[in-house]
Amino acid sequence: MDELKAKIDYKVIGQRIREVRKERNITQAKLADKLDISVVFLSRMERGVSEISLKRLMQICSILDVPVERILSGTQKENSVYLFKEFDELLENCSSEKRKLIYDIAKAISRIKL
């Protein structure tokens, strides 16, 4: 079980929760109140410091009215779609010159053996 937890990127999950919460104009205090948790604990989840249980994630998604897939998709580190959403959004806001530079850097990095 711990092996699976190590493969999940809780920081990405937390970032996505924060993103949706802000899109909905909900403060941490208001969301924490609805979840009956402290703002400190919610902040820790949003930063990926505290792991989120499936039950808690379902509560958050229900309150924020967001499909759980939006939060979880691409968060497993060894999955072929890991961080695709984040890369898509990053590239969306880049000029063609910046995209080429990012591609060249990624290509160079992909050749490095770790």
Explain briefly what this protein structure is.
This protein has helices spanning about 1-5, 10-25, 30-35, 40-45, 55-65, 70, 85-90, 95-110. It is mostly helical and about 110 residues long. It folds into two domains: about 1-75, Orthogonal Bundle (434 Repressor (Amino-terminal Domain)); about 85-114, no CATH class.
Task: Explain how this protein is built.
By secondary structure, this protein is an all-alpha fold. It folds into two domains: 76 residues, 434 Repressor (Amino-terminal Domain); 32 residues, no CATH class. It has eight helices and no strands. Helix 3 crosses helix 4. The longest helix has 15 residues. 12% of the residues are buried.
The helix-strand sequence is HHHHHHHH
Would you tell me the structural class of the helices and strands?
Answer: mainly alpha
Instruction: Work out the radius of gyration.
Output: 16 Å
* Number of contiguous helices: 8
Q: At the first level of CATH, what is the class of the largest domain?
A: Mainly Alpha
Number of domains: 2
- Classify the beta-strand content into a percent band: under 5%
Low-confidence stretches: none
Give average pLDDT, whole number: 89
Number of strands: 0
Q: Alpha-carbon distance between the termini?
A: 25 Å
